[in-house]
Amino acid sequence: MLPIIETLNFDDKEVFWQVMTEALPQLTVMQRQCLLMSIIGLEQSVISRILKIDQSNVSRNFANALEIIGVIAREYV
Fold first, then answer.
1. Is residue 9 situated within a structural domain?
2. Which of 1, 45, 56, 58 is least enclosed by beta carbons within 10 angstroms?
3. pLDDT digits 0-9 by tens, 13-69
4. What is the pTM of this model?
5. Which domain holds residue 43?
């Protein structure tokens, strides 16, 4: 499991997984890839090289993914 998730209490972990379960199918493949690589700690410049896309595309896809996740997360607050 991701180290940051381990810092959450049980209820917060449940919310995290519910939000991610709902959000991931709504993301494009590129948004998922950028999000997941960022979550594991890769920098955008590295993600850019791995995916062979401009760093601005990595940033945009990551931001769009976070926006979708944020909308879903507000339903749980």
1. no
2. 1
3. 899 999 999 999 999 999 999 999 998 889 999 999 999 999 999 999 999 999 999
4. 0.85
5. 27-77
